[in-house]
Amino acid sequence: MKPSTFNKTSLLVQSILQPIVMAALIIGTIGAVIATGLAFAGELPWPGIAVEYGETSVQIGMALQIGMTVFLMMLCVFLPTTWRVRRLENSHRRFELNMDDVTRAYAAAHAGDRAGVFQLKHEFDAVRERIQFLRNHPDLGEMEPGILEIAAQMSQVSSELARVYSDEKMSRARVFLDQRQQELATFEERIDQATGITRELVHWARQVELGEAVAQSRLDRLREEMSNVMPTLLPAAARPAQLPRRYVDLAKSEPANTTPAE
């Protein structure tokens, strides 16, 4: 059994047994007082209860009846306090129930206000319109009129808040946020694609540069090997001779003799 169910059950049993016990105590006290009074008047005999102490027998019926009557009267002294505590508990319980009802009614009125059900702007008319709405509500028809009036007044006070956070505006806000979220997801997907492409191009460029560096190294090695091998393979006679000069340096040549020979 859940704690809440156990508490409700115990409260129900207590609310049933407390009046019964208090009524029984009052009736028993009244009966004991009447019986003791009649016994003192000689109309009723005292109870015959004997207690033996060794060879001595003592009648304690009278003392026992008087003591029981006094004890019951002393218990009845606490009955007013107990009754006040019980009334406070019941009022507190009723207050909690009423607050629950007010909360339910206010939630229904506020939901209607956010949906744009109420159109009247004047305070009195707006409260009356909300009360009528709550009376016609299928889940709130059994509530007391006072609770409905309190909930209607609370709804009228928070009408500005309901207009600001109306269902239409909240729906538009949710649609806008959904679109922004979708745009963000698309943007992040494009960024991921661009990041992948960039990494691929960078890796490709590094491979190309590495290939070029290897090819240039091989070419330099080949040139070095050829420069070392070619003089050994070709003899000096087979080497190409130095070509004659095909031009005349006019600056260094002597001027020609123009006198005719004799």
Structure description:
This protein is mainly alpha-helical. The protein folds into 3 domains: 1-77, no CATH class; 96-165; 167-221. The protein is built from 7 helices and 2 strands; from the N terminus they run αββαααααα. The chain has helices at residues 3-41, 61-77, 79-114, 123-135, 145-157, 159-164, 167-233, and strands at 50-53, 56-59. A two-stranded antiparallel ribbon has the order 1-2. Strand 1 (50-53) and strand 2 (56-59) form a beta hairpin. Helix 1 crosses helix 2 (61-77) and helix 4 (123-135) crosses helix 5. Residues 245-262 have low confidence and may be disordered.
Main pleated-sheet profile: 2 strands, antiparallel
Number of strands: 2
Span of the ends, CA to CA: 156 Å
Spell the H/E element sequence. HEEHHHHHH
Classify the beta-strand content into a percent band. under 5%
Number of domains: 3
Please outline the helices and strands.
Layout: H1 3-41, E1 50-53, E2 56-59, H2 61-77, H3 79-114, H4 123-135, H5 145-157, H6 159-164, H7 167-233
Antiparallel strand pairs: 1-2
Helix pairs in contact: 1-2, 3-5, 4-5
Summarize the structure.
By secondary structure, this protein is mainly alpha-helical.
Keywords:
262 residues, mainly alpha, disordered C terminus, two-stranded antiparallel sheet, single chain, 7 helices, 2 strands, elongated, 3 domains
